[in-house]
Each structure stands twice: as structure tokens, then as C-alpha cells.
């Protein structure tokens, strides 16, 4: 019998105490009891986001938060800049086209981060752009985009907002929503918040609310103004995902107790230890500006990365992720998010060594594991 390990970048492993909390008897979403939970959750989300602005809670995956941001900020025919450096950057472009927004794409080589000066050049050439869409961390490539620099750049544009998909970034490393001028920041429950999928969160700045009030794209369920009014009444516009929000309250309580610096240090340690193991194996990384959320490894010459993923999943009981679209077969990805610790990273590295060996790649078993163990022992 295989023990199962979930080490993909979403959904992630959920802590037993959070699962237990969500299994408690359901309560009514319009009751005073739930309103009290919701009010506390919203305050704790502000702490996580490092913002004074309200954080909207939607019953959807993170993509729902992305779509909601497009339809609540823009009007038909509006222009937006889209940074496309991976599968999820392409999703911004697809959403814009779906709703008749004119997307001006800034294409970035997969595995590399966008150059803020390139964004400035395109923005100067398109002063009528109402929004700039970007990923804080492009999950498909493992790249961190320089959102702090982009925030400084776009802050000077009074009619343009910066919209950041932080679905696999918020809670993993430092993202200062207000201080960095990030107007709209989106995340989801199934990444660093260590919950099942089903919740999206969106923070909206005062600058962005001005666009929301004028936006003319069609919307019904994903309506920021309705949600804003509901916050004033300590409720939600529509039926919320009650059990997930109760689990979220438990997660956010833990984050408050741990503190953001320690939370970021935890992800950094898992990331650096895993990357030390990959280097010890003699393998290469795909991303030039790597994130603490995942380690993205180039499949060695002659090896299909999807076969590594398949062996780990089917034979070893370990779920990691392969590449998407143009990166399919070329990479595989190990997550550091969710209910994981250093021993999980060592298990994953050992499994990668075994799988590569099984596929005929000449790798010395234990070399990567030894490098990771040395790192973890020296960096407690």
C-alpha cells in the first residue's frame, strides 16, 4: 500500500486540525454565529495581505477572482496591458478577449521575469490603458515577477491600476499590498492557505474602486459593489462556502500566531533545501528568478518530464506537477506550499532520484538527498 503525498502546486495537503474544523456541523450563513466568524476572517485577511482595504471573499477557484477583476474594473473596448510569461499570464489575455477588452500583450520568454522598463515603454506608448495584469508568481514556470517595481511605476499613472494574480505567492513570500501600490491582489484557498479549492480573495484599493464604480462589463455573481455592501452588513452577497470559511478562520488564526516573517522563512527554507538537493543531483532549474512556492526542474536530456511525474504518482504515491503547454515534458515541479515540512522535501527528492534512475538517466542515488539533508541540518 502506498502512502499518498500531495506535493503539487495546488491543491495542496491540508493540516488535520483544519480538516477537523471543517467537518464540524454546518451552521447557517446568515446567522450571528457565522457573521462573527466572517468578520474575524476579513480582519485576518487584511493582516495576510498587509492592507487596510477590505478583502472580498468569493466562492470560486482563483480563476474566478481573476475573471471578477476583469469585469469589475473595465468596460467594453477598454485597453489593458497583459504580461504573458506562462500559462496563467495567457489566462489574463484569454479573459480580456472573452469580455471585449483590448489586450496589449508583453510577451516574456517562459522561465524569465518581465523587465519593468519594458512595461514602462509599452505603458508610455499606451497611456489609455486602464489596467496592467501580471502574476506575482507564474506557477507554470516558477518565476517571480517584480511586482514591487511595477507598483512604483504604475502608482504614477492616476487612471491605470496594477492587478496582481498572487494565487501562489501571497503567504509564501513578502507582498506588501499597500506599501507597494498593488491595486488589486487575488489569491485562492488551495495554495499557501493550505485549504481545499473553492475560495478566491480579492483586495481592492481606493484607486481601483474608482474604476469599479464606472465599469460597464456585464457581471452578476462576481459583483464587487454587491460584495462591498454585504461587508457593511457583516455578510456576503450570495451563499458563501461556509465550511471552507470556517477552515480559513483556523488557518488565519495559525498565521497570526506564527507571524508573517516566520511563515515566509518556512517557505524559503523548504525552497532552498529542495533546490540544494536538485543542485546536488546535477540537474538544472527552469526559472531564472525562482519562487519560494515551488521548485521547477528541467527534465534532463532524453527524459520526458511527464514520465517522472507519472512514476512518482503511480508507483511511489507522490503527486508533483509536470509542465503545461509549451513546457510539457520539459520540466517537473515540486511544491513547497501546504501542510509540508523538510522531510516531505527529502521524500520527493529521493523519489525523483529513483524515477530518473528507473528511466535510465545516470544519477547517483542519494546524492541530492544528502545535499538537501546537509542544508536542512545547517539551517534550522
Q: Which features would summarize this protein structure in a list?
A:
14 strands, Aspartate Aminotransferase, domain 2, 7-stranded mixed β-sheet, Aspartate Aminotransferase, domain 1, 43% helix, alpha/beta, 13 helices, 380 residues, 3-stranded antiparallel β-sheet
Task: Sum up the overall morphology in one term.
Answer: globular
Q: What is the fold-level CATH name, i.e. the topology of the largest domain?
A: Aspartate Aminotransferase, domain 2
Indicate the percent of residues in helices: 40-55%
Mean pLDDT: 97
Classify the secondary structure makeup into a structural class: alpha/beta
- Are there runs of 5+ residues with pLDDT below 50, and where? none
CATH class value of the largest domain: Alpha Beta
Spell out the CATH superfamily of the largest domain. Type I PLP-dependent aspartate aminotransferase-like (Major domain)
What is the string of SSEs from the N terminus onward? EHHEHEHEHEEEHEEEHHHHEHEEEHH
| Beta content | 15-25%
How many strands in all? 14
Count of domains = 2
Radius of gyration: 21 Å
Distance between the termini: 32 Å
Continuous helix count: 13
What order do the strands of the largest sheet run in, or round the barrel if closed?
A: 2-10-9-8-5-3-4
**Largest sheet descriptor:** 7 strands, mixed
Any guess at the CATH architecture of the largest domain?
3-Layer(aba) Sandwich
